[in-house]
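Researcher: First entry.
Model:
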Amino acid sequence: MKRSSRLLVILLAVLMALPVFAADKPVSIFLLISGSLGDKGFNDSAKAGLDMIKAKYGDKVTTKYTELGADTAKYAPSLEDAGDSGYSIVFCSNNFNSAVSEVAARYPNTLYVMYDGWISGDIANVHSIMYKNSEAGYLAGALAGIMTQTKGDSKLNAENVIGFIGGRDITGINDFLVGYISGAQKVDPAVKVIFNYVNSFTDTAKAKDQALLQVGTYKADVIYHAAGRAGLGLFDAAVETGKYAIGVDTDQAALFGNEPAKSSLILTSTTKRVDLTLAGVADKVIAGTKLGGQKVYLGVADGVIAYAGFNKAVPAAVQKQLAAVIADIKAGKAKIPSAFTMTADEINKLRDSVNAAK
C-alpha cells in the first residue's frame, strides 16, 4: 500500500473515532415520568437533569418529558411511541422495568436508560443505573442515631427511638430502611426504630398521620422518609410536634425556604443526584460513548449519594462524626446491608430486632 493510501486510511479511522454531532440532527431526549412532578424529590430531580442537559447543549439537543401518573398500562405504549419517533435517548425510572424489557429490543437505534434499578437480563440498547439506596439510608440512620442521643436540645427526648416512613413495603424502599437501621446501630447499638409504610407515594395525609403516631405513641424524635410525594406529610407533622425530620433525594429543606417553620426542622436530606446522573449519561452519549448493555451501581463514592447541607440544629461535633462516616463508606470500611441481597426473612429479622412497637 502506498504511503498516501496508508495516511488516508489512518485519517478515516481517526475521523470515525471522533464524536459526531450533526448540526441538522440534534440528539433527542425523552423523559418518561411515572407518577408526576411536584414530589420535591425523585421525579423533580430527574426533570432537573433534563433541564441541565438543555441548558448545557442548547440547540444541539431536543428535550421532552411527559407525566404518566400511576397507570402502568401507559408505560409500554409510551416507550413504543418514543422508539417510533426515533428518540436518541429515553430516560425512565425502574417502574418501567417490565415495559422496557418488553419494548426496547424492537427499537435498537434508541438508547433506553432506566435509572434507580437494573433491567432484568441484558438488552443491547438498555443502560441500567442502580443507586445504593442503602447507603443513603445509612447516612440518615447515622445522623438520627447520633441526634437522638444528643443532650441539651429540647426537641429531643431520652427515649432513644427514631422513625422511618416508607412509601411501600417493597425491596427498593426496604433498601433505605435496612441501611437506616444499620447506620443508626453503628452509632447507637441500643437504638429502636419505629417504621410504617404509607402504601402510597402520594398520600401526604396518611404519612403525616403515621409520623404523628410515631412521635406521640412511640416517642420518636427524628424521622426519615423514603416515600416520594407522600413523605411531604412528614414535614407537616414535624411542625405540629416540634420534632426533627430528614428528607430524601433532594435538599428538601431548601424547597421550603418560604416556610421556616418546616425548613428549620429538617436536619438535612440524603440526596440522590438523579439530575447529575442523567446529565452525565447525556454527556457520554453526545461524546460518542456506547452505553447500551451496561449496568452501573452508583453511591457515595461516586458523588451521587450524599448529605445535603445541615441546618444549625446539627452541632459541629456531630457533623464531624458524620464526615468520618462518609470517609468510611468511601474507603469500603462500612458494612452496609442491602435489601436487594437479603431474603424476606432476613429483612424481617432485622426490622424485628429494632422494632419500637414490640
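Researcher: Second entry.
Model:
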Amino acid sequence: MIKIYDYNEVAKEEIFARMEDTLDVSDIVTEIIENVKKNGDSALFAYCEKFDKAKLVALEVTEAEIDAAIQKVTEEDANFIAILEEAKENIESFHKHQVRNSFIINEKEGVVTGQKVTPIEKVGLYVPGGTAAYPSSVLMNCVPAKIAGVKEIVMVTPPSGGEVNPTILAAAKVAGVDRVFKIGGAQAVAALAYGTESVPKVDKIVGPGNAFVAEAKKQVFGKVAIDMIAGPSEILVVADGNSNPKYVAADLLSQAEHDKNASAVLVTESMELAKAVQAEIEAQLLVLPREEIARTSIDNNGKIIVADSILQAIEVANQIAPEHLEICTDNPFDYLDKIENAGSVFMGRYCPEALGDYFAGPNHTLPTSGTARFSSPLSVDDFVKKYQYTYYTEAAFEKIADKVAVFAEKEGLSAHARSATVRKKER
C-alpha cells in the first residue's frame, strides 16, 4: 500500500529519496560492444537468437513486412493509423516552434560574426520491445528529427520471436523512419555507434531502453552523441482537496505500471484526499492487467506527502524535479511561474500525463532522476548542431591586434600573441 507522510513530521531524506538502480551491467555491456565491433552482423545474429529467440536470415525489416504490419494493425483497429497520423500532426505543430535560425552580425565596420545551424546527418532511434511496446516513442523521437532536417533516421527495436511489433512498424511508417532493423539491447546500440555490414553507423543515438541499453549509451558516448540516460518513469501530482481521488489514483498508476522501479508521488494539502487516493489506488490495482508491476512500484516507491499548502507542495515538487508533474487545481496557471524543475507539466484536472505520452504534442522523452534541474525534454535542438564563424577585414584586425596579443601573453601563450602581431609587422 502507498505510504502517507506528513511533510512537517518526517525526515526530508525519506521524502526526497529516490529508487537507485543497483544493477551493475557495465562488464556485460562492454563485452557485447566489443563483440559487435569485432564481429559485426554475425554477433548481432547470435544475440538475436540468444536474447530474442529469433533465428534471423536478415536484420533489416523489408517494405513488405512494413506493409503487412500496417495491414494487420488496420484489421485489428481501423482507426489506429488515423490516430497515429493525428498525433504526428500535433507533435509536428508543437516542435515546429522550436526551430532555431542561423544568424549573422555585422554591427561593426569590417567585422562579421555569425552562427550556422545544421542538422545532424544520421540518427539512430532505439525503441523498446520488451514488456511493453511503444509506438509513441517512434513518433516522439522521429518527428523532431525530421523537422530538424536529419537526412537518415535508422530505427532499431528487438524482435520477439523474430517479428517486430506491428504497431511499432506502423508508427515508423507514419513518422517517416528511413530504415528499421530487428535488433535490440546493448548490441543494437553498439551496431549504431560503430556500424556493421548491414547497420549504418550513426552520429547520435536517441530513445529509451532498459539498464543494458542505458549502460551501452553511456559507453558509446563520445563515439556518438546520445540524448540522455533515461531512468525509471516518474510522476508527481500536486492536487488540492477538491480533486477527484479516482482521477489522481489513475494518474499515479499510469506511471507505476511502466516498471517496478517507477515512482508515483502525490503531494496535497488535504489529508482527506490523501486517504481517499490511498484507498482508490488499492481498488484500481485489482483491475490492472499489469497489477504485479504497478503494485511493486507503488509499495516500494510510491508516496503521498501531505503539505501545509499548495505553495509548499510546489516547493516539494521543485526539490524532487520530477519527469512528469501534474497540477490538479482549479487555477493551475496561478502556479506555473513557481515551477522551476520538471520535465513536462500537465495543467488542470482534465490533463492526465497519458495525454502527453501520446497525443498533445509536447515531447514525452523527458529528463528523469532529478535531472530536470539542469536538462530539458527532447526537442528539435537535439537533432541539430551549430558552428560559428568570424571575419575581419585587414583594417578591422589592425585596430585590435595588440589587444589579442596582450590577452595571449597574459596566458603565457606567446605563439598566440605572435599570430596577431606578425600581421602588423608585415605591413
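Model: Note on the second entry: Residues 26-226 form a domain with the Rossmann fold fold (CATH 3.40.50.1980).
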